[in-house]
Design a protein that fits this description.
Layout lengths: L24 H14 L4 E5 L5 H11 L6 E3 L1 H12 L7 E3 L16 E4 L1 H4 L2 H4 L4 E6 L6 H7 L3 E3 L7 H8 L1
Parallel strand pairs: 1-4, 1-5, 2-3, 2-4, 5-6
Helix pairs in contact: 1-2
Length: 171
């Protein structure tokens, strides 16, 4: 065995297939806002992980000009507060408290609510008024994944490199 000098490149490849070409995040949020305004009577419920993804969705909504309050599930509150403590401006965030009476929360009608994905299938989300279920993930590019999650609106938003990013990095 004779060792041959070579360069080694190791990377994660969550989306290391040609099918994964993520659209521009700004365009995705514009598409979401257009849908929200098209159906003003629906509560837009976005499933996003508590650490990073939820705050990114909020920041992108603000960047696209959405200045209304954004309602957040209690599980997101501490991490959003931490971002704010580190001078990340997330705008006005209010608790998405859903009444225990079983009646749909009319106060959230037409609003944007962000919650961890696990809360979307729970009784908590069932109390929301006419929810438009959205999941923020790179996996939403695969229709079967979106269907499995019950996403009516798949928001393709990933923090991972897509196929083109991986190829560009390798080159």
């Amino acid at each position: 065995f004779i060792p041959i000098p070579c360069d080694v490149f190791i990377t994660e490849a969550t989306f290391g297939l040609p099918v994964f070409r993520h659209p521009d995040p700004g365009a995705e949020l514009k598409r979401l806002l257009e849908t929200k305004y098209l159906f003003p009577e629906r509560t837009v419920v976005i499933g996003a992980y508590a650490l990073g993804k939820a705050q990114r969705v909020i920041a992108l909504l603000r960047k696209e000009g959405y200045n209304a309050p954004i309602y957040i599930h209690g599980a997101l509150q501490k991490l959003c507060n931490l971002y704010t403590e580190y001078d990340v401006d997330l705008g006005l965030l209010l608790p998405a408290t859903v009444g225990k009476s079983g009646m749909p929360q009319l106060e959230l009608k037409g609003q944007i609510v962000i919650a961890p994905p696990s809360a979307i299938g729970a009784k908590w989300a069932q109390r929301l008024y006419n929810p438009l279920i959205v999941f923020a993930s790179g996996w939403m590019q695969v229709r079967q994944r979106a269907k499995q999650r019950g996403a009516e609106f798949p928001l393709i938003l990933s923090d991972h490199a897509d196929w083109d990013d991986l190829l560009m990095t390798i080159e």
